[in-house]
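Blinded run. Sample ID left blank on purpose so nobody reads anything into the name before looking at the predicted structure. Input follows.
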Amino acid sequence: MNDETRRLRELPLARGFRRFRRHCWKLLLWFVIGSAVLVSVGRLLAPYADTFRPAVERFLAQALNQPVRIERIEASWPRLSPWITMHGLEVGDPDQRLLDVDRARLEFKLYKLVQPGRNSFELIVLGLNLVLDQDEQGRWSWRLDRGGRFAEGWEELISAGDVLLQDSSVRVAPHGVPGLDWQVPEARLDRNDDRLAVRLKAMPSGGVGESLEARLILDMPGSRLESISGFARSSSIALSQLAFDTTATGVADLRAQMQWWAEWSRSDGARFHGQVDLHSLAEGGIAGRMSSHFSLDGKWREDELRVELNAREFGADKGDEVLIDRLAYGTRAGRHGLVADHIELDYLHALMQPWLGFSDYWPERLAGTASGFEIGVDDAGALFAARGQLDDLDLTLGRPEFALSIERLDLGLAGDRLQLRPDGPARLEMPALYPETIEFDRVHGTAGIRPDLIDISALALEHAELEMIIDGRVQLGEELPMLDLVVDLPRLEPDSPRRWLPQRGIGPNTRKWLEEALQELDSAQAVTTLFGRPTTWPSHVPDGAVNSRISFSGLQLAYAPGWPVAEQVAGTVEFSGESMHAVVDSGRVAGVALRAPEIRIAETRSAEIELDLVSIESGAGDLSRLARALPLGDADRALQTLKWSGPATAEASVWLPVKHRDDWRLAGAIRFDDTDMTVREPGISLANISGQLPFTRERMGPATLSARMLDEPVALSLDSWFQPEFSLGLRGRLPLKGLLPAGWKSSLQDVLPLIGGSADFDMELTGSGAGARNGLQMRIASSLEGIALDLPMPMQKPVADAWPFELVLPLGEDLRPARFRVADRFAGRWMVTSDYWQLGLGLGGTEVDLPVAENFIVEGKLSALEIDQWLSLLAAATERGLKPDTSESNISGWLDVTVDDLRVQRDSLGEMVLALNREDDYWRLNVAGERGRGSIRFPASGEADPSLVVDMQHIFWPASGRDASAAPGLPSSLDPRRLPALDVLIRQFQWGDLDLGEFRLNSHRDSRGLQIEQVSTARKGLELNGSGQWQWIDSQPRSEMRLRLATDNLGQTLKAAGFDIALQRGQAVIEMDGKWPGSPIDLSLQRVEGNLELVATDGVIPEAGPGAGRVLGLISLNSIPRRLRLDFSDVFGEGLAFDRVAGRFELSGGIASTDDLRIDAPAAEIRMRGRTDLEERTYDQTMIVRPGVGSALPVIGALAGGPVGAAAGAALQQIFSKPLGGISEVRYSVTGSWQDPVMEPVAVEPAGDDNG
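Blinded prediction complete.
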């Protein structure tokens, strides 16, 4: 410590400060010790606080100057101030209590003991709930809902000390609106003489950190309230906390900074002023304004109230835009007025939404601009002032749902009515009536409104699709509204008529039906009168309440799903109450032109439509489409199988219920007039159908109709049922050929001539509903008596025989087999799908079902089978288009048939067993019988050798009459391009008695058919060799062959082959080179174009009787010895031995011509020339006979007097009157038929004169 410091410490002031500090520390120490002692003692006594309850009651009674009773007390000493908590505090006389508090606390403030004039005691009331109520007359009162009860004069108690309220709440409950709940954590009431000061902080219930601070001064001289003045403010509070619960969500992001001043006195009434700044935190702000300011000023005194509201928008880029200018409300002496210079309605709506949005009548949206607005009304509701203009008004109500936007709406006063004059484009939304928004191009007219009446005059609504004019009035009042309106609709051209259906005034079932049924409408006009109370119409529309007449055209109406759509419907309809009457002048249903002279609905609520329909210039095809379009069960599928054409008309009455649509009814008739019908799938046709056919919903028929089938008249009995399942029955006597499928007839041109006659047939078309076991099918049954069949065996039937026949044919896409049966000859089933087919065929009474996995099964027995004729018919049918698909390589199945008599070319091969099986990539047909045995192999897939291979052990072919008088049939039309290469081997081939030995044929395919490389037979003494081709040329098959036959005994060979020619021995070579139409087996000399050469040696031509045996036909070989023996009996004897026969025939056009046939014999030289008609089987030939050299001529006399006759006598006499120098010759003419040729001598000439 230095000297300066010591000097300073010794100063008197420094010494005095040190002494004061020591005293303070001592005082503080004693205060702390005393306080600790006092608090400790207090806390020790706290558990025994209730024993001091009488002392506390006396203390409070003296302080309040009122009797006091406490139910129970508790004490605590948390700090320096002791707390006494009182439960059940009652102040005042028992029969007139001033205060009754559930819980209160008395706090003793020790620190106030040193402040003179301050009250050391503070009374704290806990947990009071204050409710401010407004009654029906608008009077306010207050009450404690929880925490206690106050009585009149309670304010006098405040003079005993300060009163503090804690944990309290205030609920403001105006009449008819939701209440506001506030939490008051603390409110202080200080009484100073006649003035009561109230300070409080309050926050809305649920609010956190957002409070409203308020201060009130109550002037209460003599404890009578004379005036109030106050101030309230909040720096930032969410309006959602100030709004009602039901509207708080609308202002969730809106915050306010506000200040309010108010004063009231008994003499001057109330005045108030408020300033509020609003800020929006949400996108879009308050009706698009992020920040705005409004002020509210008002004055209230007795029955006079004046309020004025002004608002403006402010912001960095907004300036001061006026939102509300001088919006004022005033009331005095029973008159009320509302005026405004300018209002932005969207802002006003958003501003009032938090406090008025609870009302059912408060609009959900209000926008537009109001200017020059003025409205005045008295307590009785009479209007005494009205003017103003609303621009771009946009109004949306929630209850009822309604929205209106209009460009301009002028307000005015007409007498005591508010007159509204709309003008300009408008948008209307009335979901209760129309589900879609309606945009009007213009709305104009007037509507006068008063509390009991709305008077509408020429209110026009113009729309792109319609024009509507409304006149009349709507009476209002305590009862239900009363309409007396005329609605004129001079134009309606809707894009969709459904949008103009009102939701009300039409029964729910009718409306639901119309929404589905109305498709299109070109135009309509209507006039409607409405009279009555519409609120009762949903339950009943009385007569005269709704009357409407509508003319329409171009209507498209769909009665129900599955029903045909009515199109281009035009007519008129009248509604009266719940009834309807209409006339349809024209329309089309399913393409059928119809008219309905009368349509009736007796009661729209039950909504059953009655209409009469008449077809207009429709045909049978049109009516069939209409019937198919109706929901008649399987009738659609069934009638789709029928093709109708030709004239027909129909009339019908229809009953169509709207609610129970399945209960519709139908009755009518169809008149046919030379109508044609075809069953599509089989192709069965009827022509010239005439008659009348009645029908109902359940049935069509019964009726008898006349018709023609294949130009034969037939009578048909028709009866059809639509329910419970569809059936269509046709019965009549019909030609069998008419029942053949139309697609087959062109292919069966060779078969049709073999079928003749008519029989009774029953045809039934039936169908069960979708999903049923049996679908649509046709059944045809007959005994076939009256039908004659000239088909190859075994299908030859006399006309009188009965062959019971049945065919069941599934139609459409049902996967079911067709069934058929013809007597006991064959029966079976077949089924065809788009990619698969199956056949089960039983012959001779054998029953065969469809195969399990294979494509076909054929089993049974046949008495006879003319296989070549069936193959010929099949070939013809194939050529004409009946060509089965053989491209599938996975076809499988088998055939096992026993034929008692297998015939080929009318020759019988006896009993044969035919068995067809699949062997990998091949089919093999095994043939087993006494006359033939072996197999035929042909390909079953594209991977197999395409050749047809025949490998027969033997074939014993019976001899046949080759020269029978019957002409050969038509050649085969089989296209060789469709055939595989042929490879045939017959190890032992016998033709009648002719043993041909081993037979071979080999061929290969080319683009035009088959090239036959080899055809041969070989045995000792007989050989046949040849080659050729079988090709498709000029749209027909043609065969060309070169054949060479060599035999060492021509006579024996021909006899064994069945040609009974009296030729003995003779080694011969015959060669033919020719072509003919058809297949190689169609070889016949009548068809051949070509030549034939013959060389035979060392043989004898013996004499034979006329017509004996089967002649070859080229020359009358057997007649030569007979003729020569007649003329040269001494030379020729019983026959003609020859050394050599040689000649050449040209074959063309059924004519065989020769110029050089020569027979060299020891007895004579014979030459033949001329022609043979192979088709007519006649001769036109000349035969020249020259006797051998050195032979005598004793024949002259015989010739002269012999059978030459007088005609030749003169010539012979002249010839033989000359000297004979040696050889002579005789000419014969050969004519006549092959069976009885005529050979006559015509000339005798010396040998030297031979010209030929």
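Unblinding after everyone has recorded impressions. Residues 27-126 form one domain.
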